[in-house]
Write a structure and sequence with these properties.
heterodimer; A: alpha+beta; 16-stranded mixed β-sheet; six-stranded mixed barrel; B: mainly alpha; three-stranded antiparallel β-sheet; 3 strands; globular
């Protein structure tokens, strides 16, 4: 402890002790700390500082207890009784202050717990600091991008890299799992044999994979995720050794994983999925030699453990050196610490969130301090009497501290309850959007932070009033020097700042809500009302030629259309709010204006839809016609294109084009060339927030698919159950794998969830700042009215009417409201301008919106000013001037 | 009735060691901490807060006295053992010696080569 820290620390000692030994203490602290550093280095210095802090805490307690033991007249119980009397008369104030402080403490605690879970808490792996994610640098040299790894590259790194002690690969997998209710698709992960060993994962039951599970001829085994074990097997311990049929092959269950996040499902560019639904079943990857044959397909994610003394940088440099242009896969590697890989994007928003929550807490404390200060001003005679009876300033300060205990205590209890409720629901709400690598809990560190913040809040709330009563104690020796914060420019600026922030946030949240509604009202290009989606997979072993798939598809369409309550039924590969297939499109050359043009290659989304898709989904044709009803694989190829395609490539009805995927999949059984027979209005298949991109619609009859989405439009208000649709599908193909029925509107709402969350967060902050600003205004006016009560009394004595007095008090309120509103409007205009750069659909702030928000602020300000203004009207001059 | 020195026994380790350090000559705080650490081979290391907590109590109890800063010891106050402190230190030393003897009698400690009993 040295310098300002030491000077600050000794202020905790009683004044008499401080004056006797403070200087000596500071000197010895400095000397001993330097001595410790000379003798034992910085570690010894820190050991000394920690010991000294503990000893100093005991010294503070001892010296204060000795002092209080000498002052028996004002016992703790007497102070407690005085506090009870004081607060017992103001239950509303106690409740209001506790609610406000409790809410602010909750925000700060929840923010801390989330930030701790994302950024600071140790990952549940052995030596987690040494774990790294390894990716390949792919793409053209000028735009290298980190992405998934080939099997060849993984095996090569495993054999030659020395900076990485262990390397393990993981890749996405999907399984058709037989259940009592048929076949369901379950997502899982394929991992190399030492994946769990690299992480240091201890199974919850049974065992995890070893290298022996990844060799040729090893028995088929599966490890269950904790969630799948609970949902499918109800957490039954005897499940180990049972057989599970995955995609038609028997696998022995050998273990259950603990309920922790694990790296799984790598996706490009260099991302690892967070959703637990992607890691339900774990199976071994093919053996190393088989993996090494894969030199072109980038499918794997890789994790590694740095060798002792190595860093991600040195490992990255080594992987750079290992890459050679004469290798089958010549790409170099990128190494990132595992935590950075998962939380890099979230780091700044997390700190901003925690900082914002702490700012809200600080402002709430300052407002409460101002209200307490006004309360002390109104009780000044009481404190004068106690001073006259011998109470020192420290004694009065202690009373104020005791008076703050019920408020801080109730607020802390409220914060504990609210934080617990919020944190138990936050994982489920944010689990797939925020990298919560460990679940946030109200655990020891969070409770310690809550207790510290509550303690600090108590200190801040009482510091200002304590300063006032300490000044009161000094009046005997320093004359009648009034200490008042009522004219403090800092506090006025703070109140105006709060009002400015409130106006700006309220306005910006209205802009966000408007843009949210604008997007919700956008025309998707089809009618999604009462449409439900069911994803199905036909077993590929049985559906190997286009004719059988087309036959099953026709039966499905027929039976679904005849199902009770179904108005229309159709099929497509992707449902109308997703797009997973980009294809190379070649526009066949043609003569135009007497000039022969050559073929032109381009890229477009491939929408594979049933022939009746346009009618069933109420999509709108702007030119030409839809698919011919009887179109078959062997007929002339027909496609539709959207307006974006026509705009970009200038291809119209009648133009011929070639698609690369149909022939690539089915060969000559399907057409090679397609004619554009119609143009569709753009559908927003990338979601309502994104503009349409060029797309070509090909019929499922001419590019048959085993993975399909069933789309049924039902009568309004009737929701088809999974069992209803399942029965229809089972009648056509008993082995079909089925998902669950989802409403298209729910899928779309899910896509807009991040924006919904942001709108709700900004809205909540806006409401919070509005309440804070109103409280600040109330505090400031209470202060002003209390500080000027003698002036008011004089004016009343001189003949001013209560109406005039109230008008003057209201004028005091009007100034900061006006200033805050004007500044807030300017800030919001700037914010809206900046927001439009990020959210093009964000609307401008109209004069009407400004007027409404200004009116809201006036009303909020008037409500806040009501009590102080009424108090000024009721000033009794006779009492005050006595 | 004011407490007699014996009423203040047993002494805390820090008070005992501080008094021992001041037996030979008055010393300032930093020198006391060093003396204690050296004499005990590092077994007892006083922090500044512990020292000045004890010093305040010992001054109030009359076990030590404050001396004006010596020449060359700028602003450093030195402390000297008082008569009362010396009496108390002797009593505490005897008490500890008796305790050690009891432990030897029960063979908890090995027997001393020469008698270290009270003279």
């Amino acid at each position: 402890m040295t310098g300002w820290v030491a000077r600050f620390a000794i202020r905790f000692l009683p004044r008499t002790y401080r004056e006797r030994f403070g200087e000596d203490l500071r000197r010895e602290w400095s000397s001993l700390r330097l001595q410790a550093r000379r003798d034992w280095g910085w570690r010894g210095e820190w050991r000394y500082v920690i010991r000294e802090v503990g000893a100093f805490a005991r010294l503070v307690c001892d010296t204060h207890s000795a002092r209080w033991a000498d002052e028996p007249r004002w016992s703790w119980s007497a102070d407690g009784r005085a506090t009870w009397r004081h607060l017992g008369h103001r239950p509303g104030r106690l409740a209001g202050a506790s609610l406000m402080l409790g809410t602010a403490l909750t925000a700060a605690t929840v923010a801390f717990a989330v930030v701790d879970a994302v950024l600071w808490r140790d990952l549940p792996f052995r030596d987690a600091d040494r774990l790294v994610a390894v990716w390949e640098q792919t793409g053209p040299i000028e735009a290298r991008q980190a992405g998934r790894v080939t099997g060849y590259r993984f095996v090569d790194w495993t054999e030659r890299a020395t900076t990485l002690q262990d390397l393990a690969a993981f890749g996405a997998a999907g399984f058709q799992v037989e259940t009592g209710d048929g076949v369901a698709t379950v997502r899982g992960v394929r991992v190399s044999g030492h994946f769990f060993e690299t992480l240091g994962v201890v199974p919850a039951a049974g065992r995890v994979f070893t290298r022996a599970d990844q060799v040729v001829g090893a028995p088929r085994v599966v490890v269950l995720s904790h969630g799948y074990w609970q949902s499918r097997f109800a957490g039954r311990a005897a499940v180990i050794g049972d057989t599970l049929i995955l995609s038609g092959q028997a696998h022995t269950i050998i273990g259950v994983l603990p309920d922790v996040w694990l790296p799984s499902w790598p996706v490009n560019p260099a991302t690892i999925q967070l959703d637990p639904a992607h890691r339900q079943l774990w199976v071994p990857l093919p053996p190393g030699p088989t993996l090494a044959q894969n030199t072109g397909s980038h499918l794997l994610g890789v994790i590694g453990r740095l060798a002792p003394g190595q860093s991600a940088e040195t490992a990255g440099q080594e992987l750079e050196r290992l890459a050679a242009s004469d290798q089958p896969d010549p790409h170099a590697g990128v190494v990132r610490p595992l935590r950075d890989q998962m939380v890099l994007q979230a780091r700044a928003p997390m700190y901003v969130l925690f900082g914002a929550a702490c700012c809200v807490l600080l402002v709430a404390c300052l407002n409460l301090a101002a209200i307490d200060f006004a309360s002390v001003e109104s009780r000044i005679e009481e404190f004068r009497v106690r001073t006259a009876l011998g109470a020192g300033s420290g004694r009065l300060a202690r009373q104020l501290l005791i008076e703050s205990i019920p408020v801080v205590g109730a607020a802390t209890m409220l914060a504990v309850g609210l934080s617990h409720v919020i944190l138990t629901t936050v994982s489920a709400t944010l689990g797939t959007r925020v990298p919560l690598l460990t679940a946030p809990h109200l655990d020891g560190p969070a409770m310690a932070v809550l207790a510290t913040l509550a303690g600090l809040a108590g200190c801040i709330i009482t510091a200002w009033p304590i300063r006032r009563v300490r000044a009161l104690g000094r009046l005997h020796t320093h004359g009648d020097r009034r200490v008042s914060a009522s004219n403090s420019p800092v506090f006025r600026a703070l109140v105006i700042g709060q009002l400015t922030g409130a106006v700006a946030l309220v306005l910006l949240s209205t802009v966000l809500v408007q843009s949210f509604m604008t997007i919700g009202a956008r025309d998707p290009g089809f009618d999604p009302a009462d449409v439900h989606v069911l994803e199905i997979s036909l077993p590929r072993v049985r559906y190997t030629v286009p004719a059988t798939i087309v036959s099953a598809e026709k039966q499905l369409q027929e039976r679904l259309g005849a199902a009770p309550g179904v108005l229309a039924a159709t099929l497509s590969h992707d449902h109308p709010f997703e797009a997973n297939w980009l294809d190379v499109v070649t526009l066949v050359g043609q003569e135009s204006l007497g000039v022969m043009q050559g073929d032109a290659r381009t890229q477009a989304h491939l929408r594979i839809v049933a022939p009746n898709y346009v009618e069933a989904m109420s999509a709108r044709l702007v030119d030409g016609r839809s698919f011919a009803p009887g179109v078959e694989p062997g007929h002339d190829g027909q496609v539709l294109v959207n307006e974006a395609f026509v705009q970009r490539d200038g291809a119209n009805v009648g133009r011929q084009l070639r698609l690369s995927s149909p022939r690539g999949t089915w060969g000559a059984a399907v057409p090679g060339t397609f004619t554009i027979v119609g143009i569709l209005q753009d559908e927003r298949f990338l979601g309502l927030e994104t503009e349409s991109e060029p797309a070509v619609y090909v019929s499922t009859r001419q590019f048959p698919q085993t993975d399909l989405s069933i789309l049924v439009r039902v009568r309004a208000g009737r929701t088809p159950t999974t069992a209803d649709l399942r029965a229809v599908v089972r009648a056509v193909e008993p082995q079909a794998s089925l998902g669950t029925v989802r409403a298209l509107s729910a899928i779309e709402a899910g896509q807009r969830a991040p924006r919904t969350l942001m709108t709700m967060l900004i809205g909540a902050f806006a409401a919070g700042t509005l309440v804070l600003a109103a409280t600040g205004l109330y505090a400031m006016l209470t202060l002003l009215v209390t500080a000027r009560r003698r002036d008011i009394a004089v004016r009343i004595a001189l003949g001013a009417t209560p109406r005039v007095i109230a008008r003057q008090a209201a004028w005091l309120a009007g100034m900061p409201i006006a200033a805050g509103t004007v500044l807030g409007l300017s800030l919001a205009a700037l914010g809206a301008w900046a927001m439009r750069a990020v959210l093009p659909e964000a609307s401008t702030i109209t004069p009407a919106t400004m007027a409404i928000v200004a009116a809201v602020m006036m009303v909020a300000g008037a409500c806040a000013a009501l009590v102080p203004v009424r108090r000024s009207r009721r000033t009794d001059a006779a009492v005050l001037l006595r | 009735m004011p407490p007699t020195p014996v009423d203040q026994l047993p002494l805390t380790i820090s008070v005992f060691q501080i008094l021992l350090s001041l037996v030979d000559r008055p010393q300032h705080g930093y020198a006391i901490i060093h003396d204690v650490a050296e004499r005990t081979g590092g077994d007892v290391r006083l922090t500044a807060s512990t020292l000045y907590g004890a010093v305040a109590r010992m001054l109030d109890g009359g076990l030590i006295e404050e001396r004006a800063p010596a020449d060359g010891q700028e602003r450093r106050r030195t402390y000297a053992i008082s008569r009362r402190g010396r009496v108390l230190l002797t009593e505490e030393a005897h008490r500890l010696a008796r305790a050690a003897q009891w432990a030897r009698d029960k063979q908890v400690l090995p027997a001393a080569p020469k008698s270290g009993g009270r003279r």
